[in-house]
Design brief:
Rossmann fold; 30% helix; globular; seven-stranded mixed β-sheet; homodimer; 12 helices; six-stranded parallel β-sheet; Quinone Oxidoreductase, Chain A, domain 1; 20 strands; alpha/beta
């Protein structure tokens, strides 16, 4: 049988025109280890927006029901040459009910069950997924509770795994009031990992303090650099994760680490020899990263991405992480949403304007 | 017996006054494994200038015979708090004759010999060094030929060792017309390592081509980014070394690596998964590093410093590197100097203005 529904597609043409639209789509019966999931809830994560809209001008776009036509800046259009003219599905993760399954036992075992999965095509009525990558939700767990069970939880756990693997003993996290940041606060509390949280307002300071976070710093407050140095000194946190990317923050974290490492030490023209590292894992600010290199010559700045991390970590580690997420899905790994929208509604001017601003605490959930 | 002579000292006071002067100094008889070297030639490397003058205003300084008094910018003064009020010797490396030695056999064996060493106090009449770190120069090798046998040669060899250890197969080198850059051209030719040289003028292009370098790019020429991408594509060089630090070059190298890695590949919103890395190993430009992050999320930028590299590499590797330098000191590892100055003369306005400009090809040699 064929399953009829709708699918979001995003296409960038070589003239810089970006077209995002909901189109009719049909799905065939799955085969082998594949399952067909009726999508019931799919979050819009910052990592989805890079594909959905990238740096297109959504404020000045044309909106019609189920369709957005926007202009992409010239440099970005050139940089994304490999996607010119290709209508691409989007939506990394979702939860829903398995309505059909291939003949493989692993697939058949999921038939009728509610699962969380990572199809990469989640903004749609249905999504095809591999049974091996789908996790059945526990009895009583809703699709909404299971929708964000992959990207944020695995990323937050990945930070702690990375810290241990690279020999660090504490973490600094920027934009820490996000859903992911809140998870990280709870994970670090459970695991006894010292954590320095950097947020952007007094309200966010309160939010994280109410979660039990000890070190929460408002980067917009006077004396931030000194407070950051003190917090790093108190925690020994020499590994940072920054989803902002643009601006001076990554360099400020490295400089604070350096000041902490050099405290009381004799002068060295090359700075301290204590390893200090910041990973950029997002691009909330797509502007340039500006490093005022006041941190000697023992430092590292790099990109961090979930998929290569998991490949390097190996299936045993990933399996253990996945099991932990499923066990604590409604507590440690709970997500919060500002609004719920249907497939067509997710392309309304109001919705795009809200979630594409990538403001902390304003995550949208798509409920097709 | 006591050895009388002169010594350069550099002192930064907490009000930002930097005083660099030549003062009378006496040296006692060495003991144990120590040797006393009469300094005959000591280069002024960029790595020495960070201690000698750092970012002080040498153009507006007061000059008197054997003395410079300059103003340090406020931020730099604060950043170097640990050296306030301390008169520090300078001069990483030198060559000279061993005039006295401690009782240890290793020290006694060097008595009367001409050696290269790394005392950190080389701008002086004499320098105390450890016999284990001193290398006797071969018959017929002059002090001038042996003066720069450590910092530049070991750094250039360290780049190739780092490349191998980290699994890369080619190098990109910025400011490649320097003494160090010329050594790297010869080392890479001998070892069959593909090398992309980035220089800053047509004259420097010619200089390196005359040395046999294949890929030499003028970063001031139109089409530099495209040419860099092509050269990286031709060589597979995904590891860069940059002594400039400030400005956009490190990011341009990463972006060119990314364009090369993505050539012909399907679109990925996160960029290619090929590892790309740039090490900053100097600060010819002390301004901010500006990264226009057009290189996905699989990238690394870090600081590189000779001492921690050698500690990690271990004594066997370092011993092999040292032996190679000594063997080919007057060929592969030959250095060139623009001028020779005495101890007092090195603090003249003319000399400081010339070598503190850190221009490629204008290295000074101190001959006390």
């Amino acid at each position: 049988m064929t399953y009829e529904g709708q699918q979001l597609l995003t296409r960038l043409d070589d003239d810089g025109t970006l077209t995002v639209e909901i189109v009719p789509q049909s799905w065939e019966e799955p085969s082998g280890s594949q399952i067909l999931v009726r999508v019931e809830a799919a979050p819009i994560n910052p990592s989805d927006l890079g594909l959905l809209f990238a740096s297109a001008d959504t404020a000045g776009a044309d909106y019609s029901p189920g369709k957005v036509v926007a202009k992409m800046p010239e440099a970005a259009t050139r940089a994304m040459q490999a996607r010119h003219g290709i209508a691409m599905p989007a939506g990394n993760e979702c939860a829903g009910t398995v309505v059909a399954a291939g003949e493989a036992p692993a697939a058949q075992a999921l038939l009728g069950k509610r699962v969380a999965c990572v199809p990469g095509t989640a903004y749609a009525t249905y999504a095809l997924a591999d049974a091996a990558m789908a996790m059945p939700l526990a009895e009583g767990v809703t699709a909404e509770q299971g929708a964000s069970s992959f990207v944020n939880p695995m990323t937050a756990l990945g930070f702690v795994e990375t810290m241990r693997k690279e020999g660090f003993t504490g973490l600094v996290h920027a934009a820490a009031a996000s859903n992911l940041g809140q998870m990280l606060v709870r994970i670090c509390a459970e695991d006894g990992v010292p954590l320095v949280n950097i947020v952007r307002s007094e309200a966010q300071v309160k939010l994280l303090r109410d979660l039990g976070a000890e070190h929460v710093l408002d980067m917009t407050a006077p004396g931030f650099d000194a407070a950051l140095t003190d917090a790093i000194h108190a925690t020994g946190a020499m590994l940072g994760f920054d989803p902002i990317g643009g601006g001076t923050l990554a360099g400020q974290i490295l400089a604070a680490m350096e000041r902490s490492a050099s405290r009381g030490a004799a002068f060295s023209r090359y700075g301290s020899s204590v390893p200090k590292k910041v990973y950029i894992y997002g691009a909330l600010d797509t502007g340039p990263t500006i490093l005022n290199r006041a941190f000697g010559l023992t430092w590292d700045l790099g990109g961090w991405l979930l998929t290569p991390f998991m490949q390097k970590a190996g299936s045993e580690v990933v399996g253990r992480m996945r099991a932990r997420v499923m066990k604590d899905l409604t507590t440690t790994f709970a997500s919060h949403y500002k609004a719920r929208v249907g497939l067509e509604e997710m392309l309304s001017k109001e919705a795009v304007g809200a979630y594409n601003a990538r403001r902390t605490g304003e995550k949208y959930l798509v409920v097709p």
